[in-house]
Design a protein that fits this description.
This protein has 99 residues and is of the alpha+beta class. The chain is 34% helix and 24% strand. It has a single domain, classed as 2-Layer Sandwich (Ribosomal Protein S5, domain 2). It has helices at residues 37-55, 71-85, and strands at 7-10, 17-22, 28-34, 60-66. The chain is globular.
Length: 99
């Protein structure tokens, strides 16, 4: 998927994550802010990368502000931000419908 604009999904509420994605030119860049970065930073990064790969995103700058989100929440936030950044505004291919 080609990102055409900057987009955001999620909130800064407890047990959620705010994900911002924008187009980049040299692969995937991920920035993570989290109170539990030392315990779960690798898992957060892996979840984001796996979701981007499933969506076919090859170039993106991603910022994650984690407030204790579960993996399923993080995946949903990344999917939503990517769809918004690609201009998809209806007939979302959520979850299993994606590659």
């Amino acid at each position: 998927m080609k990102l055409i604009q900057t987009a955001l999904a999620g909130t800064l509420e407890s047990s959620d994550a705010q994900v911002t994605v924008e187009n980049a030119e040299n692969g995937i860049e991920i920035s993570i802010e989290s109170n539990v970065i030392n315990q779960y930073g690798r898992q957060i990064k892996e979840t984001v990368l796996e979701t981007l790969d499933r969506l076919g995103v090859e170039n993106a700058r991603v910022k994650v502000v984690d407030k204790g989100a579960l993996d399923c929440t993080l995946r949903a936030r990344v999917e939503c931000a990517v769809f918004r950044a690609c201009g998809v505004d209806k007939d979302y291919p959520w979850g299993g419908a994606i590659r």
